[in-house]
């Protein structure tokens, strides 16, 4: 809701009610609050690529995957519907009732990502892949208690800042979906709400890239963290003992 409504405000307000920075800030705030809301209950699985990665690594039972994906889909779909209702009057005024995916009054990009005109399909795929690698690396580093993990209670804020940083540096080419759950449900909503099947054919059938590239980027991010950081970390007990701190056995 925070992220999509910020895009709507920038697009429909013709730049008078926000800029690129405000969109990135809103998505960062949304992620932070989402983690606080769901972290204690479900681990705050807000991203289907990360959930699938946890299943592949054995950190999450496969039987729980459908429940997480359904929850993510419903949350994202409902967010799109909420923003649509919130800005319906502005949408109608901006488009004169003609909801389009491309053109001077295109509004589909309020809800889902589409590649910039200058970006090739391969370039867009690499952008989403790389951005998701950075997302996973950042999340793993923030929660890495064997290394220099974040202070307890700051993880949600730092993850929001991480998303902000990705948007500030890697958002121009594709709008940085980095999350199948963030992109597909609103795309389905726009197809139903008046934009039609063009949402799946625009950008050289772009819709499948935000589904596959983040999954591969997530797995690559885990691999990079394992090879260059985790394998070189000392166990928590050894590290504390070398520093002269008392040994504490943790579950």
From TrEMBL:
Keywords: Membrane, Transmembrane, Transmembrane helix, Transport. It comes from the Eukaryota. InterPro entries: Aquaporin-like, MIP, MIP/Aquaporin. It is found in: Membrane. One of its GO terms (cellular component) is basolateral plasma membrane. GO terms for molecular function: glycerol channel activity; urea transmembrane transporter activity; water channel activity. Pfam families: MIP. It catalyses: glycerol(in) = glycerol(out); H2O(in) = H2O(out). The keyword Membrane applies. It is a multi-pass membrane protein. The keyword Isomerase does not apply. The chain crosses the membrane at residues 67-88, 121-142, 154-178, 205-224. Belongs to the MIP/aquaporin (TC 1.A.8) family. NCBIfam families: MIP. This is AQP7 protein. It comes from Corythaeola cristata (Great blue turaco). The gene is Aqp7.
């Amino acid at each position: 809701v925070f992220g999509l409504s910020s895009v709507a405000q920038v697009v429909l307000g013709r730049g008078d009610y926000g800029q690129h920075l405000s969109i990135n800030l809103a998505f960062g705030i949304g992620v932070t609050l989402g983690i606080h809301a769901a972290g204690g209950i479900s681990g705050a699985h807000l991203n289907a690529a990360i959930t699938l990665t946890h299943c592949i690594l054995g950190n999450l039972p496969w039987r729980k995957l459908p429940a997480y994906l359904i929850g993510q889909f419903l949350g994202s779909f409902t967010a799109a519907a909420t923003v649509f209702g919130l800005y319906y009057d502005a949408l109608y005024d901006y488009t004169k009732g003609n909801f389009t995916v491309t053109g001077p009054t295109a509004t589909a990009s309020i809800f889902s990502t589409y590649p910039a005109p200058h970006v090739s399909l391969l370039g867009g795929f690499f952008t989403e892949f790389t951005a998701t690698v950075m997302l996973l690396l950042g999340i793993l580093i923030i929660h890495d208690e064997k290394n220099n993990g974040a202070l307890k209670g700051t993880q949600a804020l730092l993850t929001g800042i991480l998303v902000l940083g990705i948007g500030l540096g890697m958002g121009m080419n594709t709008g940085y979906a980095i999350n199948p759950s963030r992109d597909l449900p609103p795309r389905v909503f726009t197809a139903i709400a008046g934009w039609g099947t063009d949402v799946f054919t625009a950008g050289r059938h772009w819709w499948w890239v935000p589904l596959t590239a983040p999954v591969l980027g997530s797995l690559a991010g885990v691999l990079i963290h394992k090879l260059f950081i985790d394998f070189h970390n000392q166990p928590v007990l050894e590290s504390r003992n070398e520093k002269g701190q008392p040994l504490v056995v943790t579950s």
